[in-house]
Amino acid sequence: MTKFVVIVVLLLSSAGAWSKKPLQISIAEQAQSILVFDRTSNRVVEGFNTTAQLPIASITKLMTVYVVLESNVDLNELVTIKRQRIEGSRNLTPGMRVSRRELITLSLVASDNLAAKTLALAHPGGYDDFINLMNSTAAKIGMVDTVYVEPTGLLLNKSTAWDLHLLNGAVKKYKEFASAAMTAQTTADTVNLKGIIKHVMIRNTSMFAGKYDISVGKTGFTNPAGWCISMSMTHKGKEFDIVVLGSPDKKTRNNLVSAKLRDYMNTITASAVIKDIAVIEEAQ
Fold first, then answer.
1. Cα gap 47→205, rounded to integer Å
2. Of 17, 200, 211, 277, which one has the fewest beta carbons inside 10 Å?
3. Among 232, 230, 233, which residue's Cα sits nearest to residue 213?
4. Over the stretch 112-155, which tens digit does the pLDDT of each residue have?
5. Is residue 199 situated within a structural domain?
6. How many domains are there within the chain?
7. Sheet holding 97-99, edge to edge
8. Is 17 domain-assigned?
């Protein structure tokens, strides 16, 4: 009889514990689109609405920089910053002269909108030609559901998780993307109106920059786009992409990415990533 009572108590305890288990949040509540792609085995590990065309915010800057690099322009040429009707820059002011190389760093590391806009304005063929090149380059890569209307992400540039995965594969041939994704803090050199060189300190919005093998990494946020991220990483010989679009808030996006990293990386590394990813960026 005693043994029977003990068994019943244990069963009841287990039932009570089970009834208190928190409800799982569906993928649809965490993002409008998600893709986890294993490049090593060339397969989709997980996907949700991967071909849904959505706003991509500052992830746009990956294509902006890629077009600059593909254009074979002089990266060391100094470009004059012109006043623009876009959100103010923390790093640049009209009249400064900055090399394309530094503008690339500012665009990818600091996600500076004025830097990205200046790269397009300084294109030898002009601004409109640059935007056309963004779209024709996307078509060449196979990004059939992507449309660019400007170079910063402030307006409604649209793409899909699948197309952004294709973009990750194309851009990583240039060391500038890995360098930006792995740089926690750096400086950009600018020349002011008096010809004096000014060193602008910039910090990567990603707190895990430089700690993991990231070949491409860019986040973004606008009200229409929600909270987004596109990453390409290597871990223990395996390369994979994680793309998340349209999360309702930064915490939800970060928790979702953390869960995917935990699925595909070992426990020790995943714990470190989860700790850092909660503060991926201040603004985005």
1. 26
2. 17
3. 233
4. 999 999 999 999 999 999 999 999 999 999 999 999 999 999 99
5. yes
6. 1
7. 78-80, 97-99, 185-191, 197-203
8. no
Range of the domain at 30: 26-277
Which residues are paired to 79 by β-bridges?
A: 98
Report the distance separating Cα 71 and Cα 92, nearest Å.
Answer: 24
**Helix intervals (H) in 97-249:** 100-109, 113-121, 127-141, 161-171, 175-182
Q: Tokens representing 52?
A: 């849904």
User: What single letter denotes the amino acid at residue 113?
Assistant: N
Q: Write out the H or E segment, with its range, that includes residue 29.
A: helix 27-30
Q: Identify the CATH number of the domain in which residue 45 sits.
A: 3.40.710.10
Residue 13 lies in a domain: no
Residue 223 in domain:
yes
Spatial separation of the C-alpha atoms in residues 117 and 109, rounded to whole Å = 15
Contacts by residues 194-201 (CB-CB < 8 Å, ≥ 24 positions apart): 198/96, 200/91, 200/92, 200/106
